[in-house]
């Protein structure tokens, strides 16, 4: 029997890498199901909604209810809908994030002067012109948010700049920090996860491959944490790494050892 009622699982680097299922992931998920833990998948990917992961994991025999998936995009959309209703959002972000925001009935504007809120995120088409417009919108005193803090994204053959790098450019130009960055490890993200799981934080386990997002989310929410070594963190990084996870697992397949 396990003391955990619920588990929050990161996706990239924990369950999958690129399009491949990580070794041990399916077994680990089965173990958690057999232990009776309710499960939430939580990705900081700001370009995907919940349904994407049902489709992505189905070929591996993993049944995923989109209601049990959060991404930094869905958390951001929900947060803006709740806290800035009827306000216009100037987005520096991907077309897919734009669609997710529109599906949440958020009104977008491309006119900097018309913006009440500026949202920065991963954008492959990010340009000097976007930065100029964002600066103009931020100078007007708009609220300023980011989807996620990830400065880089691991891809096949290297890394590419992520939302955090674009937010840093916006922050430098405007001379102000975002009011909040809404994905993991923010308090908003922890609350969104808690609301889905309906388990007390002290009986919730967070498993992920990044110390600064996954483990930090668990730490700040009072949850138990486990890092897996199947993603960006290697064993050598743990020496003096911060924040310190409660458990270290070679892969999700070893989850049984801490239940
Ligand atoms: Mg990850």
Automatic annotation (TrEMBL):
GO MF terms, alphabetically ordered: phosphatase activity
Transmembrane portions of the chain: none
Matching Pfam families: Hydrolase_6, Hydrolase_like
A cellular component term, taken from the record's GO annotations: cytoplasm
Signal sequence region: none
Entry keyword set: Hydrolase
Record has Hydrolase as a keyword: yes
Domain of life: Archaea
The protein's name: HAD family hydrolase
Highest classification ranks of the organism: Archaea, Methanobacteriati, Methanobacteriota, Stenosarchaea group, Halobacteria
């Amino acid at each position: 029997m396990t003391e955990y009622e619920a588990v929050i699982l990161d996706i990239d680097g924990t369950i999958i890498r690129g399009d491949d299922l990580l070794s041990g992931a399916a077994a680990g998920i089965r173990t958690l199901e057999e232990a009776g833990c309710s499960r939430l998948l939580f990705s900081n990917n700001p370009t995907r909604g919940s349904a994407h992961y049902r489709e992505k994991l189905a070929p591996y025999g993993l049944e995923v209810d989109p209601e049990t998936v959060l991404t930094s995009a869905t958390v951001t959309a929900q947060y803006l809908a709740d806290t800035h209703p009827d306000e216009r959002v100037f987005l520096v972000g991907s077309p897919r994030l734009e669609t997710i925001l529109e599906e949440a009935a958020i009104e977008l504007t491309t006119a900097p002067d018309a913006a009440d809120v500026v949202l920065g995120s991963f954008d492959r088409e990010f340009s000097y012109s976007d930065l100029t417009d964002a600066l103009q919108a931020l100078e007007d005193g708009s609220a300023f948010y980011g989807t996620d803090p990830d400065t880089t994204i691991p891809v096949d053959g290297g890394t590419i700049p992520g939302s955090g790098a674009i937010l840093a450019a916006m922050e430098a130009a405007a001379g102000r920090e975002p009011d909040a960055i809404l994905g993991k490890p923010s308090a908003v993200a922890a609350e969104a996860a808690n609301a889905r799981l309906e388990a007390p934080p002290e009986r919730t386990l967070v498993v992920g491959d990044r110390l600064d997002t996954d483990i930090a989310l668990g730490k700040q929410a009072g949850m138990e944490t486990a890092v897996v070594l199947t993603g960006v963190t290697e064993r050598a990084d743990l020496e003096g790494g911060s924040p310190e996870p409660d458990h270290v697992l070679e892969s999700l397949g070893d989850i049984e050892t801490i239940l």
